[in-house]
Amino acid sequence: MSRHFRAITACYLQQWRKCGHMLKSARLQLAGSHRGQSYVEMIFTVLGVSVVIITAIEGSIVLNRGMAVKQLAYQGARYAAANPGFSSATILAFVSQAEPSVLTQGTIQVSMSPSTTPRSTGTAVSVSVSFTPTMAVPSVIKFPATISATNIAMSQ
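and the corresponding structure tokens:
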């Protein structure tokens, strides 16, 4: 009986090994297909996240430039209001000289009204500044091509 038992056990053990190899190769094939799917999913995820990050960075640059243009218009209006005897050329030179480093990659246009000299006390002085960047990065969102700001102050 022990001889038959050993023979049957050896037969079952041999069949089990064959099935084990087939199951192992099937598992490896399935793992390979899941790995490819994971790569594709990761590529789409990384692309989506990178577009969001790049757009956020570009938006923050545009916002920073917008605040700099607004501040530059404010400085020009206050300077023109505090110095009513200065001509518009002097005011425009001051504004161009006070340009922050954020606005160096583009062109700035400054205008002032009224351009009469001297201005009487209580006269409203308006200084407009517009900035057009020279280097634009393509983006998903259309950011403004020109950033402009106007500030009004009363002459003293």
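(Above: one complete record from the training split.) Strands lie at 106-113, 124-133, 147-154.
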